[in-house]
Every structure is written in structure tokens, then in C-alpha cells.
Amino acid sequence: MYAKGEVEVAGYQKIYGMAQCTRDLSGADCKKCLDDAVNELPRCCGGKQGGRVVGGSCNIRYEIYPFLNL
User: At the top level of CATH, which class does the domain 2-63 belong to?
Assistant: First the structure.
């Protein structure tokens, strides 16, 4: 499972993001894995312009620039 998106923050800055789970996860397990990854963001990436959390079965990434060419 895979998703990408962008959101405007503070009326001018865009944040680009993606989330991905391995195919062996159910929808519920993917959501739990991604929730856990999101909860790690403040610890690893708080205050930074970009960040990534890679787990065994899922990963998330965000940046202030478009990083995907899909």
C-alpha cells in the first residue's frame, strides 16, 4: 500500500509526504505501523524541514520540496 500527498502550511509553505506499507500487512496492521511511525517523528525529526521513519513493514517521509516523480 502506498500514498502520497501535499498540504499547504501557514498559508504559503507546502509539505510533501508519502507513506508506504509492505504488501503482507492488512489495512489495519498498515495503519498501526504508520501510526507508530508518525509517533516517532517528533523524536527523530522535530523542528527539521524533512524527515523519514523506516520500520520493518512501513515507512513515512516528508520534505519541503517535491521528492517523488510519480
Answer: alpha beta
User: d(Cα 15, Cα 8) in Å, to the nearest integer?
Assistant: 6
Cβ-contact 41, 49 below 8 angstroms:
no
Contacts of 38 (CB under 8 A, 6+ apart): 53, 60
The pTM assigned to this predicted structure is: 0.86
**CB–CB of 64/50 below 8 Å?**
yes
Cα–Cα distance for residue pair 34/63, rounded to 1 Å: 17
In this predicted model, what pLDDT tens digit does every residue of 7-43 receive, in sequence order? 998 878 999 999 999 999 999 999 999 999 999 999 9
Residue-range domain boundaries for the chain: 2-63
